[in-house]
Write a structure and sequence with these properties.
With 267 residues, the protein is mostly beta strands. The protein has one helix at residues 178-184, and strands at 10-12, 18-19, 24-35, 41-49, 51-58, 68-73, 78-83, 88-93, 112-128, 131-144, 153-162, 170-171, 194-201, 207-217, 220-232, 248-249. The protein has a 14-stranded mixed beta sheet, with helices on one face. It has a two-stranded antiparallel sheet with strand order 2-12. The longest helix has 7 residues, at 178-184.
Length: 267
């Protein structure tokens, strides 16, 4: 772990992400993600100005078009989820709220859970178009109190990161710990616990270009690997970030009934 002398310990409550309007350079990032023994998935993210588009598919899938498409228009505080096979969409909006529609306000009561985030900047750098990627190693230790629902755990993350502010129309936690904490906290019911984050070390994370995380909980170990397949700053067509004119709103699903067709937007 990084020396405590490198950076004084800082203890904070998890903060609710704030809504921002980014100004991205034209950028395409394609990545393969593998989680444990599950089938790898491929995601392509496109960024331009105040907007972003993401496409997801299982690797080697014969599904055409993509399994999932999301368009975020931060300048309009609007988010579209597209079903390209049926040419329908679902729309959500930030309205006047500060934060993402799916954000959860941190709990300030309940049994304490101490999360120590130790970041180490290795000093290694990699030039990627106009971006400079830095290599940062992170150790995340979860220590719940006696009555907490969260389980103890530890994650060791080794990755390359760039500064890409405003992804998801949000000013996120400076350590960008969403994926690891979601795996280590939320699936165990830890939303009811009082989470306190303690930061030490000298590293600064960001948008993960490449990353390998080894997550240990009790007797379970999961390895999540994100590999870079494409990184391009070629100009992008603005139409990628618009709702296609021939799409119509998707009907809201009814209550589950025997034989009911699965909601195509339920991922």
């Amino acid at each position: 772990m990084a020396s405590l002398l490198a950076h004084a310990a800082e203890t904070t409550e998890p903060s609710l992400p704030k809504f921002v309007v980014p100004n991205f350079k034209d950028l395409t990032i394609k990545q393969r993600t593998t989680m444990g023994l599950s089938q790898p998935s491929v995601a392509t993210s496109f960024f331009k100005g105040a907007r972003a588009r993401s496409e997801h598919n299982p690797e080697n899938s014969r599904i055409t078009p993509p399994f999932s498409v999301i368009i975020e228009q931060c300048d309009l505080k609007t988010r579209y989820m597209l079903n390209e096979r049926e040419k329908t969409y679902r729309k959500s909006s930030w309205g006047d709220r500060q934060g993402h529609p799916l954000s959860h306000k941190p709990n300030t009561t309940g049994p304490e859970v101490i999360i120590t985030v130790d970041t180490e900047d290795t000093g290694e750098r990699r030039q990627m178009s106009s971006f400079e990627a830095r290599r940062v190693r992170t150790t995340i230790t979860v220590e719940p109190s006696k009555d907490a629902e969260t389980k103890p755990g530890k994650a060791v993350v080794d990755g390359w990161y760039i500064d890409l502010v405003g992804v998801g129309c949000l000013q996120r936690d400076p350590e960008s710990l969403g994926a690891e904490l979601a795996l280590m906290l939320f699936h165990t019911g830890g939303r009811h616990d009082h989470v306190i984050i303690k930061r030490i070390g000298n590293g600064q994370r960001g948008y993960a270009v490449e990353e390998t995380a080894t997550i240990k909980e009790e007797h379970n170990v999961v390895v999540r690997k994100r590999e870079l397949l494409e990184f391009s700053d070629q100009p992008l067509n603005p139409s990628l970030f618009e709702l296609p004119p021939d799409y119509s709103p998707a009907p809201m699903p009814k209550m589950d009934q025997p034989g009911q067709k699965r909601d195509p937007f339920d991922r």
